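hey all, quick one before standup. I had two proteins in the batch that finished overnight and I want to keep them in one place so we stop losing track of which output belongs to which input. First protein below, input sequence then structure tokens straight from the run.
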Amino acid sequence: MKLPVYLGLLHKSEGTLAESFRQVSAGHGHEPDVHFLCQALAAQCDEHQKALQPIIERYGEVDDDDEPERLHAGGLQNTRSGPVGLLRDLQDLYLLASLVDITWTMIRQAAQGLKDKELLDVVTDCDGQTSTQLKWLQTRMKQAAPQALIVAR
């Protein structure tokens, strides 16, 4: 069974996403909505990791498999400055959140195959919040794009 590989990927990716949300919050503190929402979204990711703990205890967690470099994404090490920097940082968050989202989808498929109600409940709660994170990021990028791409010099 390879479910522990994807549980490890999800656990690590949620942590990476939380750290990256905090990095963007700190780096773009002059944008109040970005600052506070990124802090709230980071806390959601922390809660997702906690919700996974009983599942990981049951099925296990594998940190590396035969292709670990293809299964993990790095987080934001620092933030960029200015309007284009904000747009790029939000785009990086979107990519990380997309990885988390599709990984929840794969785990949902496994949970359905295993008929594991507890895992399905965790997936339903957490994946719904990840979808909302993606929607906010997309909306915020749409809002920032005209300023960053047309007005800013």
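OK second protein, same deal, sequence then tokens:
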Amino acid sequence: MDETYSIGEFSKLTGISVRTLHYYEELGLLKPFRQENGHRVYKIEDMVELQKILNLKLLGFSLTQIGELLKLPKYDQSLVEMLRLQQQALEVKLVQITQSLELIGRMIAIVQAEDQLEHPLLLSLIRNMNQEDMQREWVANHLSEYTAQTLFDRSAEAIKKMDAETVRFSRDVKRLSEGPSDSQEAETVIGAYVNWAMTYIDQKAIDNFGNLDEEQYTQLDQLVEMPFNERESAWLDKALKHYLSKYTLTEQGELNSKNGECS
């Protein structure tokens, strides 16, 4: 006579909780024998079915998909096709997980370096990180491939430095926006940031940026999240205009004073 198990015994034997066994039964994945008193009785055949369910779950199939697979009398090319589709879906998930892990690593590094982050700045950083693929595509299509590479195809150390510079500049703007946009400190901060940014941009990108139309500017605004409120954004615009009114860009991508002095 085949050996049988109560649901408690079957749970201990397989390592699957009683609650999960109940759920699998509700979905029709497992069909234990019911005694006259209503007690469930599991057999070796149920253990084989449970192993099939667990193996298919490991392959990433949903319980609904598993139910359909268990109904098949045998597996043929249709299973191969399902496995290929599942493989593609898991590969997409793997890319998403890898990107999420990279983002988390960057955020950990920033918070550890800065001790704390203000909410607008934190959200801005996360949104920009999530849109970097689209930002890179826009820069390559509208500015230059060289600029796209220098901005986005970076080493882990270069990414860390860029994130730190972004945080520093954002905080400087928020702090200085309480005062005049043409102060010496404002000019120094804007100048340092502009010169730093110019190390990533080639002449082709500079020329193309000057020729962008309104729609392209709108696209860029939608892709780049700024952590500034309306007042801070207005201050930054004034500070940039003031700085660029005093300094001019050379063909080598350097900023020189229009009065003949270096910035």
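Flagging for whoever picks this up: DSSP finds 13 helices and four strands in the chain. Residues 77-114 form the longest helix (38 residues).
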